[in-house]
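Re: Re: ligand-bound prediction request (bumping)

Still looking for help on this. To restate: I need the protein modeled with AR6 bound, output as structure tokens. Inputs repeated here so nobody has to scroll up.
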Amino acid sequence: MKLQALQSDITIPNMDAIVNAANSSLLGGGGVDGAIHWAAGPEMLADCLTLNGCRTGEAKMTKGHRLKACHVIHTVGPVWHGGKNGEADKLRVCYTNSLRLAAENGLQSIAFPRISTGMHRFPSDQAAQIAVESLRTFLAAPCSIQTVVFCCFSAADRDQYEKLLTP
Ligand code: AR6
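Reply:
Sorry for the wait, this slipped through. Here it is.
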């Protein structure tokens, strides 16, 4: 099992799946969502139109089309409203549902962005802890997934994940 933090644009890794920090329409937006839609091309948007949107915490999959990644797992992270509205649990299920969908489809490698830490304003430290804990809990049981990468925009973010991933 390989767990890794990378300083990279989410559209770059050559993985079985990359995860999109989407909104509930699944029709695109800014940040990660905008970059993935731009790189995947209009064929992915056409796939998204058939999915009837996605609720917070859910995960839905399309092909990667023009991306190097074969699949895109779209999930909708919670908007931070101070932490007393179940934000932590909602973020946890984004990771768990994305990993479950990947495993149900026999995928072996998956890259995550830092879901909810941009437009959705989730505090960075807390989000990183939730991401790594969710991953460790899910991967404690046997499944197809062999490689998980956290894609971080900045070196500081990558260092934060590297510390958390160091046993
Ligand atoms: N590659 C890797 N990381 C990125 C990239 C990229 N290309 N772009 C931004 N980040 P965000 P959210 C980092 O806002 O908070 C969209 O409009 C960024 O620095 O993409 O879940 C959707 O449509 C931050 O740490 O996702 C939704 O409406 C993290 O990725 C909403 O934004 C997540 O930032 C989702 O907001």
